[in-house]
Request: fold
Amino acid sequence: MPPPTMPETILPDAIELTKALIAAESVTPARGSVFDVLEAALLPLGFRVERFVEGEAPDGPVENLLAVRGTSGKHFAFAGHLDVVPPGSGWTSGAFEPEVRGGLLYGRGAVDMKGAIAAFVEAASRVEGGVTTLIITGDEEGPATFGTPRLIERMAERGLLPDLCLVGEPTSQHRLGDMIKIGRRGSTVIDIVVPGKQGHVAYPHLADNPVPRLVRALAEIDAIVLDTGNAWFQPSNIEIIDLMVGNPATNVIPGEARARISIRFNDQQYGPDLIARIEEIVQRHAPLGIVTGRVYGEAFLTQPGELSSLISDAIEAKLGVVPELSTTGGTSDARFLSKLCPVVEFGLLNATMHKLDEAVALDDLVALTDVYAEILKRALL
Reply:
């Protein structure tokens, strides 16, 4: 089957480009046809497009796209992802068959975040001057090991350092433009394994039950109050998200017990320190316990200033809305990009992202394109 294409006569229309991107199935990690569609939209606008594939299983391979237009002047970057979460079953129409019904465009990725990418491409067609960069990955919804971090490395090799960066994640809550994100909490997932010795329940002295030790450790972990939040962040929280013994018998003491913890933390915490704290607790209750943690991103905050004001003013000028500055929600690739330059997130309504029948209002796509064009104009001129 040939990759989805778009007639050049309608490029770079945001609605038609969104449809074409949706039609290019791109469950994470994404490669191939969806990048073909985006590249075909960017080349006529004068962008120099570089595509590269990084990584091996299980976190790869992942395709990334770096597109640059201009050589001097102010440098504005737009970041996003073409990969989507699995669609699930039960869609009214095909998840990768874009369909307009009642003023809404349905399809996986319509909101998160192919619609925003398409809107930015059309916006870029309206504004010239300076340097404009698109930082697009095929692995934001997955581990993100070979996605945006590798794009940032590639940019460093080429001496590309944006002054400002906008991530097109769906941040709006109730109406387009009512919220932008100036920071995000960090995230770590920690696995705990407590070994024991399997035996008969009638002869406990001949066995070693790991479950009580794990339960005591988890009780202490669950009682932790990490902090009470601050002016920009809600309190950090620890959640026990899985407890596994896998014992099908009724008369056997298990030989092992496992648990998984997820921590979302604000800028008062540091990921490796949190892992070390959990490990210390587990070791006290179960000296042979094994703790393995992975930090998916540290908390970051872009202090209100030039970038947030530029975006807020553009939203107010085009939509008549003064957005709330927020740090709520999950993680995004802004956690990596924040090390590159000031970064803010702004995009479509997030009500249907990751859901069945994900949809974007056509009017919102048009309006978002207008706002993105205004942001570009203010940033580059």
